[in-house]
Amino acid sequence: MAVPASPTERDEVAPTLDGPVPRSLGFLDQGAFWANLGVSLLGFAGVLAVLQPAGAPPLTVTAAVVATVVGTAIGSAMVGLSAIPGARTGAPAMVVLRGLFGGVLSWIPSVLNVVQLIGWGTFELVVIAQAGTLAIGGPTWAWVLGAGVLTTLLTLRPLGMLRLLRRVVTILVAISVAYLAWWLFTRPAAADLGESGSWAGFWAGTDAAIAVAVSWIPVASDYSRHSKRTSTAFTAATVGYGLTQVLCFVVGLAALSLVGGNGDDVFAPMLAAPLGVVALLVLTLRETDQSFANVYSTAVSAQNLVPRADRRALCVGIGVLITVLALGVTIDDFAVFLAVIGSVFVPLLGVGVGEALVNKGRLDLSRWAPSRPLMIVAWVVGLAVYQLINPGGAPGWSDAWTALRDAIGFVPPSWLSASLTSFLVAALVAAGCAALGARRTEIVRAG
């Protein structure tokens, strides 16, 4: 188990999990980090997943904006909650899950997290290459390779990366986004994105906005473990991420209205601005903080499986992998990817909250902590509830859940949110299972 860092060990993260844990990040460091994660090139086009949610009717622009605000508020609060255990214990996210599921069973979410983070890292390199090619040209493969190399280098000194974001990058990003927002909102729209939309798919759109945010749930503690205070970790994640994701999505809607809703051309109106190339290049280079977070957290998640593995070697290997994958993946697969993410990680947080309500955050984080299979049951129940309400559009996977829904005759009402419902159900089941486990322990001790 990692120990707090001494004054001479606060500069960087130790290579292995049993090394000291620096506690050097204040509110500005963490707030800048989360604010930068909320501004994403993927978000500009990804807002289409809110405007046109998979498996639901398209929304009006007004409904999409409201869904963005509501979904982001819920999702960012979930990210803030997931940052608390790391700040309290000094342990990364997947190690925290040893206390929830047990040492061996925590390998299940660890593997799933590694898979989703590799997916996110791959998509980030794809969108960096897309934006860079549009901005100044060049072969796509060269942008992918360049972004992959830069991403990998940044992961070798993660706390240094966070301090760089606070001191330099955040200011440049704020100027660039403000300029692009001004330019886009002063142009006449080429198409009314919501002329055929409605509010019927509001909660499906909200779930899409939540899904973008909650993809950070299983990594939040990887960074909050270095926070000076628990309250700072929660506030920085909730406020920093929430404000900028809303801004990013709204700017994306404005850009899409200028290109008739074509997500492939979302960057074209930005480049039409007098200083658009400069602003887009700033955002393109800054996008490496997204790929950095995905690669770094993939390595830290993998360390839950192999605690003595050197994080730096893992980062290099993962950086090479996502670079190779990005050479063969297109952005068209992004919306389907989101639908699966939400169903996995929203109920995971619900399980953690439900268990904490009973056991008050008392966790055994040792590598061989006793298995708690009932918590896995609570997680699976929450996942099933999410998929039955919103199967999404992933071929095969979604078809199976739709068939099951039809077989049992379940028709979810339009007002039912898959994210909120699965979170609550998972929390309730987990609380019940935790209470049952505590009662059994009392009986054993008494007997």
From TrEMBL:
Subcellular location: Membrane
Swiss-Prot/TrEMBL keywords: Membrane, Transmembrane, Transmembrane helix
InterPro entries: CodB (IPR030191), Pur-cyt_permease (IPR001248)
Membrane topology type: Multi-pass membrane protein
Signal peptide: none
Pfam families reported for this sequence: Transp_cyt_pur
Residues passing through the membrane, by range: 33-51, 63-84, 96-120, 168-185, 197-220, 232-260, 266-285, 313-331, 337-358, 370-389, 415-438
First-listed, main subcellular location of the protein, grouped into a coarse class: membrane
Keyword Iron-sulfur: no
Family: Belongs to the purine-cytosine permease (2.A.39) family.
Full protein name: Cytosine permease
